[in-house]
Specification:
Layout (H helix, E strand, L loop, with lengths): L2 H27 L5 H6 L7 H12 L2 H16 L12 H12 L5 H8 L1 E2 L2 E2 L2 H12 L1
Antiparallel strand pairs: 1-2
Amino acid sequence: MRSSVQKRHHKAHRILCEKWWSKSNLDYVRPCKSREEVVRNVPKDMDPHDWEWLVSNKYLTAKFKEASDCNSINRSKAIKMPHHSGSKPHRELKRQKEEKMDVQPTQDEMLFLTRQKGGHFVEQAAKDKYVIKIDR
């Protein structure tokens, strides 16, 4: 299999996993009050031992909780940041950057690519958000 096809397949699989993790967290972890309750709240069609491992090694880790809380706060702020990349779709900008650098652009790079003109941010909100992400 060609390397570019493998990369796209891996990326598509990763996106599906992230969506599943997010939905599982929302449906099976967040409603629970304790670790024991989360472990007992096993999704259908999932082995209880696999679920317990996922809970211990993913959902209840400090890193996951921190990212989840940060993302919840960011979504609640709902900062309006219009895109300034013209009629070119984001996937095209991403593909061009990937071909040029031979590596997938980060979220920070995509934020910059889609909200700037002439190498500078157009909106102050986008600039502030970019600085916050870089400082982490």
